[in-house]
Amino acid sequence: MLRRLSVLLLLVRMFVKSQMEYRGAFWLDRLAQIISYGAVLLGMWILLQKFELLGGWNWPELALLFSFQLLAYALGASVSFTQLRDLEELVRLGTLDALLTKPINTWAYLIFSGLNIGYAGHIILAIPVLVWALLAAQVEWSIGNALFFAGSLLSATLVTGAVITMIGAIALIWVRSNHLFSIFFGFWELTRYPLNIFPGGIQAVMLTVVPLAYISAVPVAVLLGKPVPLLGDFAAPAALLAGPLLVLVAVTHWRYALSRYQGAGG
Amino acid sequence: MTALIEARGVSKRFRQHKRFPGLLGAFKTLVTAEYTEVAAVSDVSFDIQAGEAVGYLGPNGAGKSTMIKMMTGILVPSAGSLTVLGRTPHEQRMANARQIGVVFGQRSQLWWDLPVIDSFALHQRIYDIPQARYAENLERFSALLDLTPFLDRAVRQLSLGQRMRAEIVMSLLHDPKILFLDEPTIGLDVVAKDAVRRFLAEINRERGVTIILTTHDLQDIETICPRLIMVDHSKLIFDGELGRLRAALGSSRRLTLEFATDPGPLPLATATLTSDEGLIKHYLLEREDVSLVHVLSEVGSTRDLKDVALHEPNIEEVIRTFYQGRNIAATATS
């Protein structure tokens, strides 16, 4: 087990080393990311100067929602997004075939050989905003609340990774999967806002079929003691369980997709 | 003893979305859910024993790579049974992986931006190769294929020939029992091809590594593989020694007779006249049991025969003739 872990760490080291072959571009990229997400946050701030509340949420609460979502996404996506987005290309070019002949878990190899340190930009922006928002918003801190915060952040990270893995795995069957990622990001942008501002249909979708509400609106609302549409009292356990449950679904789906893999080309 | 690889009636069919021609057809393709089944491998059976070197030959799309992918556990056969080292490859892909080496000519397994040696080091860790054995293999193979000068260079800076040599060395570092190579010499220059071929032949001979390689290039097979498996349109059409292929495919030898004085038309029972230039006449020897002696005794000593040339078709001609014949047959029936 420990030995397997050391192989994965070596994979990460090698990937970082390859990235550093282009380190100028790397840091420029991070700067661009911070600026683009910063602009989104600024847009929300401007909006709140005019309206003061959005669905009953004030500025510090929305900043908490935004930073929680950004952090959970960055952590979850760093272990899934670019790797699974590129899976389509690996399938198309046949590179995946070579991976399948190695005595190592294919998903683990894929994830750790491409562990995206590029999300550093998201994290550099999210953490200070999160810390400020946690202090500025009216969170009633207790041990239970603190544990819930840590647990739901972890769960949100898992939800992100699991959903992205499920979308990416579709490439194993249909070769193409990237169009589904555009749908994912469509819903993902909605998760920067409180769930209650959306019509009931969208709320239901985001709590079930595209379960992205669990990466921000549900846990943050619980933390702030706000009501969660549709879930009510079940919001807290749902936020904590969503991650582990979706991981199980994603693992099953990944295995199924791999068994259906047809390869591409000769 | 059971065979290292046993294929019994192995088939692989791919489901393809049915496509309709033209722009309207493209829309139709989008909204219909009709599938056509394409057979990539149909009812192929063979046994491969330990230590053999087998060439898997066939034109593009004949199902060569698909067979390799089934033997390495990447693809699941649609029908038939396949065992490699006593295991069903796709069910025990990981266990199988430890004992086989795989080289894909057209897809690299090396890390593009890192020195070659880094990819090797990762390979050592993934396959748990003991340090002493790793060092020994690396030294021996690097010497044989002359890798030492570029082991510390980033893979993206290597020539195709250098990269291919590195890929092959990597695939052997964990002492695999079987080495699968999918078109290992594709795109290489003559010198690099030769180096790869001699190395593979030596590995097979000295270490007893069983080699299975697919190729378009007959020279690969002539140098490395005493045994040839030939496939066409997903079916196995020949399995045996390379030398037997000519007889099996019924290719004819060509005979040229040159006379000092024109003997006039000269039809023979033992050979078929194909062209007559007067002094020089060309024949085909279609029957394997007819030798040059038979032909010459039929021609007789009274004619003013000046020179005789018997032309054995090389293997490439044999196969080309076979495929051309098949195409003609296909056109005739369609």
Within the largest sheet of chain B, what's the order of strands? 5-6-7-3-8-9
What is the domain tally of chain A?
1
CATH class assignment of the largest domain in chain B: Alpha Beta
- Derived from helix and strand composition plus strand pairing, the structural class of chain B reads alpha/beta
Mean pLDDT of chain B: 87
Q: Could you tell me the strand content of chain A as a percent range? A: under 5%
Number of strands of chain B: 13
Comma- or semicolon-separated keywords:
heterodimer; A: 266 residues; mainly alpha; 13 helices; B: 334 residues; alpha/beta; six-stranded mixed β-sheet; four-stranded antiparallel β-sheet
How would you sum up this structure, described in words?
- The complex is a heterodimer of chains A (266) and B (334).
- Chain A is an all-alpha fold and 266 residues long.
- Chain A has one domain.
- In chain A, 73% of the residues lie in helices and 0% in strands.
- Chain A has 13 helices and no strands.
- Chain A has helices spanning 2-19, 23-51, 59-78, 81-85, 87-93, 95-100, 106-112, 120-136, 143-174, 178-190, 200-207, 217-223, 235-259.
- The longest helix of chain A has 32 residues, at 143-174.
- Chain A is globular.
- By secondary structure, chain B is an alpha/beta fold.
- Chain B folds into 2 domains: 50-247, Rossmann fold (3-Layer(aba) Sandwich); 252-312.
- Chain B contains 11 helices and 13 strands.
- Chain B has a 6-stranded mixed β-sheet with strand order 5-6-7-3-8-9, sandwiched between helices. In chain B, strands 11-12-10-13 form a 4-stranded antiparallel β-sheet, with no helix packed on it. A 3-stranded antiparallel β-sheet of chain B has the order 2-1-4.
- In chain B, helix 5 (131-145) packs antiparallel against helix 6.
- The two termini of chain B are 46 Å apart.
- The mean pLDDT of chain B is 87.
